[in-house]
Design brief:
The protein is α/β, with parallel strands linked by helices. Helices cover 31% and strands 29% of the residues. Pfam families: Cofilin_ADF (PF00241).
Length: 146
C-alpha cells in the first residue's frame, strides 16, 4: 500500500548528516566549546541532528545522565586526561548508545546510519558501542585513552 507524498524511511537506507551536526562537532574538536555532543536521528528530516550539547565544565556523569534510558543515540565526548609523563591530553570518543530496551526499528536505523556519521566526523580517536552504562564506564575511556 502506498500513499502519495508519504515516504517512510527504510531501516536499511541510512540517514544524511545535517550541516549543523558537522559544525557542532568541529566546535567541540577545535574550539573546545562543548564537553560532549549527543546526536539523534530525525526520521522526518531523514538526517542525524544535534540533540544536546554539554558545556566544557560538565562531567562524564552529566553526559551519561543525558542519554535516554530506552532510546538510541550517537555521541561524541571530549575526554581530558593526564599521561604517565604528566602531559595533559585529550581524546575524542564516538559512542553508539543503543540500550537493550530500545525499539528494534531504532536499533536498525542507528546501526545502518552509524558509518555515514562516523565518516563525516573527522578526528575521532576511539569508538565505543554500548547497550548498557557499564560498557561505557569512565574506566573504559581511561583504558582506551592510555
Amino acid at each position: 500500500m502506498s500513499f502519495r507524498g508519504f515516504t517512510r524511511p527504510n531501516a536499511t537506507s541510512g540517514m544524511g548528516v545535517a550541516n549543523h551536526t558537522k559544525d557542532t562537532f568541529l566546535e567541540l574538536k577545535r574550539k573546545k566549546v562543548y564537553r560532549y555532543v549527543i546526536f539523534r536521528i530525525d526520521e522526518k528530516k531523514r538526517e542525524v541532528v544535534v540533540d544536546k550539547t554539554g558545556a566544557p565544565a560538565e562531567s562524564y556523569d552529566d553526559f551519561t545522565a543525558s542519554l535516554p534510558e530506552s532510546d538510541c543515540r550517537y555521541a561524541v565526548y571530549d575526554f581530558d586526561f593526564v599521561t604517565s609523563e604528566n602531559c595533559q591530553k585529550s581524546k575524542i570518543f564516538f559512542i553508539a548508545w543503543c540500550p537493550s530496551s530500545s525499539r528494534i526499528r531504532a536499533k536498525m536505523l542507528y546501526a545502518t546510519s552509524k558509518d555515514r556519521l562516523r565518516r563525516e566526523l573527522d578526528g575521532i580517536h576511539y569508538e565505543i558501542q554500548a547497550t548498557d552504562p557499564t560498557e561505557m564506564d569512565l574506566e573504559v575511556l581511561r583504558d582506551r585513552a592510555h
